[in-house]
What we know:
- There is one protein chain.
- This protein is mainly alpha-helical.
- It has helices spanning 3-27, 30-33, 35-64, 71-97, 103-128.
- The protein is 87% helix and 0% strand.
- 16% of the residues are buried.
Amino acid sequence: MSFRWYVIMMGIGTALAWIAWLFVLEAMNPNEAGLTAFIFFYTTLFLSCVGTLSLLGLIYRIGIRHREAVLAREVRISFRHAVLLSLVGVSALWLSAHRALTWYWLLTLVFVVAGVEYLFLMVQASRRQ
């Protein structure tokens, strides 16, 4: 798949995910739907955030920083960062909904994500040698 098609498909998918999230927000009553509404809410929010952050990361990496050497690598890095940041955001929102979000839980989430990113960087560095 070419870079252009990736951006087009990611944009369409992100728009559909935001539309689905808005639909869940408007159409489902959490008191009546129960667990299903919460699963749809958090899943569509996560997918929407991943798509949006991935596209914004690509704009930053390629448009602003002018890193065009290997586009596939920039796409991978941008997508990985989007997934990790979305995971932190949605997890923090879930903890907040359950009145369990405290500074030490948020710090734990950030450290876990930083550790995962560090592992990715170590694996990437070992492949280059």
